[in-house]
Amino acid sequence: MADKKIKVHVENLKKSFGKLEVLKDISMDIQEGEVVVLLGPSGSGKSTFLRCLNQLETATAGTIVVDGADVTDKHTDINKVRENIGMVFQHFNLFPHKTVLGNIMLAPVELKKMTKEQATETGMSLLKRVGMETKADTYPSQISGGQKQRVAIARALAMNPDIMLFDEPTSALDPEMVGEVLAVMKKLAADGMTMVVVTHEIGFAREVADRIVFMDAGYIVEQGTPEEVIDHPKEERTIDFLNKVL
Amino acid sequence: MLVIIEKYSSMLLGALGKTILLTLLSLIFAMVVGMIFALMNVGKNRFFNCIGTIYVDAVRGVPLIVLAYFIFFGVPQGIKSLGFQDFRLTALQAGTIALAMNCGAYMAEIIRAGIESVDKGQMEASRSLGLSYGKSMRKVVLPQAIRTMIPSIINQFIITLKDTSILSVIGFPELTNIGKTISGNTFKSLQTWAIVGVMYMVVIITLSRIAKRIERRMNRGR
After folding, report:
1. A122-130: which pairs have CB atoms within 8 A and are 24 or more residues apart?
2. Neighbours of A56 (CB within 10 A)
3. B54 touches chain A (CB under 8 A)
């Protein structure tokens, strides 16, 4: 891995909401093509950490460099950086007033990255990639949760990002729909996408992750390969957490 | 009754036209004013929040009739005292300003509530794709907010139409003002005001019917 580029560099990141300190000094490097899964109890700061990476939450202190751009610097054009970071949300957040294809086309067309024709073509091939090409002209309200999340993944891929962030992508799904979304994510990982995933799916983490980061109370408690962290955890809090979820 | 209709119909219809003209002008400006102050209020900038709140509170805290007097009589006097001797405001200009300010304050609240009714995740999803705040507002949040706003906006339109009658006090020849003239000339108050009332009613009922239809059509798209 030594020859690989560092995609995300986080140094001494802190984030507080009012008096509540959610992230207390997080440092981490993520390499190109790496799949990092963040595990930890709710309230541990995983989602906040993820949302800091594309500055949906502004960091209170510390530095975050994504692809060479310091996103914590006020002079950085954050919109430009975000084009390169796709994000998938727990509650899908599809645009209800747009069709499935319209959802995917919005950003490339509005940001003048593609013409309408190009965006349609790209949109359709992305929908094919997530197995949703037959639903291109339906509205989000007419499809199931698993389908919505697959469309949301396609939408996040529309700007052809280098990095994908997943914020509990399967937590709002009925159990029988979790598999189809995880399958799309596995394919993405296999294609070499750099991914940061917050999830409670231990099986997925074990299978797909290059690195597991276990967080608790705003700190990184322990990190390593799935084998190290899931099968042979060293820290008591990790052991405790895994006992509860496995 | 027939005598009045026969003799004054063109006057009444002309006055109704003036009423509708004043309503439409005010509404157009009120939409702009409302949008500006709503956006000030939903943003994160404290300074703009403050201006927005002051505007809405001030205008809603003053009766329309007082606002109309202030703009028609007070403002020109103030400007004249600054040395602009030729400054004048017609009743239509003053009336439009007063109504637009008043309606704009209510509109600002309607639009603000509409924007806030849209799930926060929508803005986040749009921003995460690289769209700016303004673009996200225009392309993602506002199109959804408008659906929830439509019934309230139409309600506000109707209120504004009725409020034009208040501007008879500054001498604008709209329907109520002409009604006063006719009842004064003929001494037939009962008939005159019944006719004027029915004229308002017909316009407003027509308007709300159209509004219902638009609302239904917009909901079908969901």
Report:
1. A122/A158, A123/A154, A123/A158, A126/A154, A126/A157, A126/A158, A127/A100, A127/A101, A127/A151, A127/A154, A129/A154, A129/A157, A129/A184, A129/A187, A130/A154, A130/A184
2. 21
3. no
Structure tokens at A132: 């949703």
Nearest CA in chain A to B142: A97
CA–CA dist B110, B153 (Å, integer): 7
Can you tell me the distance from the alpha carbon of B196 to that of B214, in angstroms, rounded to the nearest whole number?
28
User: How many beta-carbon pairs under 8 angstroms link A with B?
Assistant: 67
Question: What whole-number distance in Å separates Cα of residue A176 and Cα of residue A243?
Answer: 24
Compute the distance between CA of residue A237 and CA of residue A215 in angstroms, rounded to an integer: 9
How many beta carbons lie within 10 A of that of residue A73, not counting itself?
11
* Alpha carbons A68 and A224: distance in angstroms, whole number: 25
Q: Do A107 and B127 touch (CB under 8 A)?
A: no
* Per-residue pLDDT at B150: 87
- pLDDT confidence of residue A1: 46
Following DSSP, what letter does each residue of A155-185 receive, concatenated? HHHTT--SEEEEESTTTTS-HHHHHHHHHHH
Would you say the C-alpha torsion A7, A13, A16, A20 has a positive or negative sign?
Answer: positive
Predicted local confidence at residue A3, as pLDDT:
57
Question: What does the pLDDT read at residue B220?
Answer: 64
Residue A112 identity: K
Interface of A with B (CB under 8 A): 54, 56, 79-83, 85-87, 89, 91, 93-97, 106-107, 110-111, 139, 141, 152, 155-156, 158-159
Q: Tell which phi-psi region holds residue A68, choosing left (phi > 0), alpha (psi between -120 and 50) or beta.
A: left
Comparing CB atoms, the residue among A79, A81, A91 nearest residue B131 is A79
Crossing angle of helices A100-110 and A145-157, rounded to 10°: 20
Q: Is B218 on the interface with A (CB under 8 A)?
A: no
Which residues in chain A touch residue B126, judged by CB atoms under 8 angstroms apart? 95, 106
Which parts of chain A sit beneath pLDDT 70? 1-3
Q: What is the mean pLDDT of chain B?
A: 93
H/E segment holding residue A221: strand A219-224
Q: Which residues from chain A sit within 8 angstroms of residue B121, using beta carbons?
A: 89, 91, 93
Cβ within 8 Å, pair B131-A91: no
pLDDT for B101: 97
**For chain B, which residues score pLDDT lower than 70?**
220-222
ipTM over 0.90: yes
Nearest CA in chain A to B220: A97
Distance from CA of A137 to the nearest CA of B (A): 13
How many CA atoms, within 13 angstroms, populate the side-chain half-sphere of residue A152? 33
